[in-house]
Amino acid sequence: MSTARYPxxxxxxxxxxxxxxxxIAPRLLSLELTECRGGEADQLSLAxxxxxxxxxLPRRGAVLRVALGWHGSGLVDKGAFRVDEVEHxxxxxxxxxxxxxxxxxxxxxTRRERSWHATTLGAVLxxxxxxxxxxxxxAPSLASTPLAHLxxxxxxxxxxxxxxxxxxxxxxxxxxxxxxxxPIGSGTTAGGDPLPGITLTRADGDRxxxxxxxxxxxxxxxAYWNDRPGARRRSVLVGDDGNVRALRETxxxxxxxxxxxxxxxxxxxxxxxxxxxxxxxxxxxxSPEQRVTVTGFKPEIDGTGWLVVRTSHTVTGDSGFTTRVxxxxxxxxxxxxxx
Length: 339
Known about the structure:
By secondary structure, this protein is an alpha+beta fold. About 15% of the residues lie in helices and about 50% in strands.
């Protein structure tokens, strides 16, 4: 039997710098790693047999580092994760360890009260990065955006980062020691390097799902703002009049209203089509924000450019390694890398 046709998964797990791979490999039930574009922390779940009761429970706060791949083709480092939940269950006895991206520290999740005045988006994000010992990776086009006023009220820094990402339709995340804030679709890593494009064929997957939504019937987005000097409520329109989606919130200024309307318009355009593909042979090199071309499906699917939103990698104890890729239509927005 050809080993080339039946590759064997390879993986490595370290705990606080100690390589545990050989020790836990015979106990592996599953290793599941989910990588998100932004707004959510990357998550790791590790399930292990404890039939003999000899498996020690890791402490909360311990750091796991994971690499995935295939024997003969090397491993891809998938980053560090801080243990935040440990579960022991039975019978048969097993241990499940859940961890989140190690860069999301307790300090980033602590609620704060502060305000900024007459500043820029870049200044706020650079200050946040400095406070948490992170390298700022902010797209220049976004860094120069003026902020007349910004409140952080009983809100953690990670929640504020997510809110700003929604406002400016940006990848807003903390990964690999960096605070990343770049336009969605910019196609860069946390280190600022360009992500390679990927081509996937129908033969690569064993299950898929394609869906379209009626979001493409919207012609534009309207957002409202308070004109205090004029004592009236005004609106801005991004796109065209006709079947317009109106945002519920009333914003403090015309600029802020336009920023939210523009971000929502971009999300609507990307959300007109979604595609999920379960890869029979896992691809550890796949990650959010990569551009993907697919072939072998319907013309509507093959003819669409795709942008990865989420990847879920699963390794099982019976030598399986699969990857589920969730994608949305690539609207072509955001081409400027961070520096």
